Amino acid sequence: MSISVGIDLGTTFSAVAYIDPKSKSPQIIPNREGKKITPSVIQFLDGEMIFGSEAEDAYNAGEPNCVATFKREMGNDEPYCYIDGVPYTSEKLSSLLLRYLKENAEEVLGESIKDAVITVPAYFYSREREATYRAAEAAGLKVKKIIDEPNAAAMAYGLTNWRENANILVYDLGGGTFDVTLVHMGKNGELSTITTRGNHQLGGRDWDNRIEDLLFDRFESETDLDLRSDPDLSAIIRGMCEDVKKNLSVMTTVKATASFPNFGRASVLISRQEFEESTSDLLERTGSLCQAVLDEAGITIKNVTDILLVGGSTRMPQVSNYIQKLFGKKPITHVNPDEAVALGAAIQSSKKNTEYASLSVQVVEGKKVTDRSKSGLNNFVAVKPAHKLDSINSLSLRETTAHALGVVAVNDEENCYYNEVIIPANHPRPVRAAKRFRYYTSSTSNNTLDVYMVQGDNPNPTDCIIPYKYVVSGIQHVNKGEKIGTVIRVQYSYDDNGIIHVQARQGDSNRDLPIRKDDAPRDISKFGHPINSADNKRDSSMGLMMNHGGSGGVIHKYKAVTFSNVEWEKYDNIPVHPSGAEFNEPTIHVVANEKQIEFHGYNVSQMDEGVTYTIDSNDDFEIECNIDTSTIQPHPGGFLKILLGIISANLNQNGGNILLDGEGVAMVGSKFNLKMSLSDGGHYEVYVDGKLVGSKVHETSGGVDVTFGFEHDSHCCSILSHAYISNIDMMQCADSGEDESAETPTWDD
Ligand code: AMP
């Protein structure tokens, strides 16, 4: 027969549990030594691996090649350690430990393990969860589900202490991580996690470090030895810390004795009071996270029915005292913190996984949040008396997303990046949601779109975590007049394990585009800077309005070039003209197919030749101008000329003709909107006031001229007086507006 198990893969200890077929209740599977928990420590010795207590003893004695607390670096691809020159990541070490736990449990029970539920800190990001998943699979385990440690503990507790309508705060302080989770006991044994916060760099180890400081100070003044700078002597102190800490949980003063080579024995005293004083800031940090959870859930301290302490470090009396002070009630301590998580995981291992839920969001003060109206959390109805549930079947768990999930997008004003949340935090999972974005394609370059995933709900992406960049490829080139660009639907799935998947489709296609997952760049500071900051410095009178016309939201590959408020005076204000007239010399930026081109619109020395920019005929290019020629005072016989390849507009104060390949296609007055575009290597289109007035395919090899300026018999000069640069290659939401219920339909894998 084969069984399912629940595994608490702890930073300091691990435990395995299963559902005992006789009692139908969760039971810990002891290790070969008969102990219910196994230290998460490995020693590499003479080509062999030693796990558990023996390895821990060696570790504490400062023996070489011992590794502990590697879970803290889960998801980090850098080696956690080198053993005999061989690199080991946290994932690899975890897989070795999991294999040991698996084989141990199989041997003790005489059963093979079919699949396993593995627990992780609630605040683990997708990256750490994926690493845990891979570690378990590499250990020969089939992962049934990854669940959060506090939820597992709450399940184990709820099985025997079900209190309908209760809000339980699970305070989980382990060896390396701290999580605080609010769970709600609903009807019919449904346990819902409401919200969670945590810090996976805060745990018992930090308390050990404070003891270490105290011990170093004491022993140094006792012995006059420089213990800190001697690695062997430091190892002696380090090896004592955890024991001293644990003893302080039961004694008010602990005598620590050590023997130093060439010195002999020395003893020092550490009191619980001084230990508590030196660690009070650590407790405060846990308290702030508790408060953050309540704020996020919209409840107050008095709405918390009980506080459940889990994790080995909650054995320190300071934790219960602090909680009692903070909440005005004694926390529940009768759950065995070492076992509860594995027991809960075992209960979950007997259950089927849930189906994807559809997104349920509300927009509150412009921020997308989970719609919790159905959670029962805020009903504040009387809590029913505690009772034991009939069986594990009467209990079910509804987990939530710990982090909001978004993409780096460009705001409507197109001047800064922001985090466009797709799935809010604390949403029941598994959940799937899609969003539409526009992307500007190019006919000449590979159309790849970078989707920067954001974990967190701070609007500023740099205040969140960007775990990955997803590079979407295979996008078809689309470039048609007003509808320039294409829509890309991006779908996020937050699966049962809290692992995130990304898919993308173009337009209405039902085929997923190829996606490559890349590490996010180390430096994401650019997402905190204004877009085009260089351009913003330019004289604002030279700036121009962006063309928002009809594009909705966009993912910009490049921006159409837009001119507005063209005033002939600009020409006449150029400062140094041979005739003595004053001129401006505007600096022009144009973007076509991602290429940024900077050139000067008027160059006095080239006055007789004019200045014309030449683009490649394969460039997709668009110019849009809001023209008002009434201010033009051209030289006699001269005219304003706007030209893109075979399209040209020749204008005086009263307007003029628009020509396409030499043929007039429109007569215009002095005020009108003109748009000219070139796409697909020779497809010209010209629009007047939004109406297509002419189009022609005219393939040209080589260059195509773009001119904006004044032409006269004696001289020709081009003043591309208002242009805008953009190298925005980010996403801008196409599903904008208040109506968040108009969600983009999702699709199955
Ligand atoms: P966990 O990750 O939940 O297994 O918790 C392990 C952490 O609990 C380690 O930092 C231990 O030092 C700490 N711990 C275990 N027992 C005690 C105790 N009696 N007093 C203080 N800390 C303890």
The helix count comes to 11
Helix content: 10-25%
Give the overall average pLDDT: 80
Contiguous runs where pLDDT drops below 50 for at least 5 residues? 480-484, 532-613, 714-729, 736-741
Per DSSP E runs of 2 or more residues, the count of β-strands stands at: 45
Quaternary structure classification: single chain
Helix/sheet category: alpha+beta
Compounds present?
A: adenosine monophosphate
Proportion of strand residues: 25-35%
Instruction: Identify the overall geometry.
Output: elongated
User: Over the alpha carbons, how many angstroms does the gyration radius reach?
Assistant: 34 Å
N→C terminal distance: 33 Å
For the sheet with most strands, the description reads: 7 strands, antiparallel
Quickly list its features.
single chain, 749 residues, alpha+beta, six-stranded mixed beta sheet, 45 strands, 19% helix, binds adenosine monophosphate
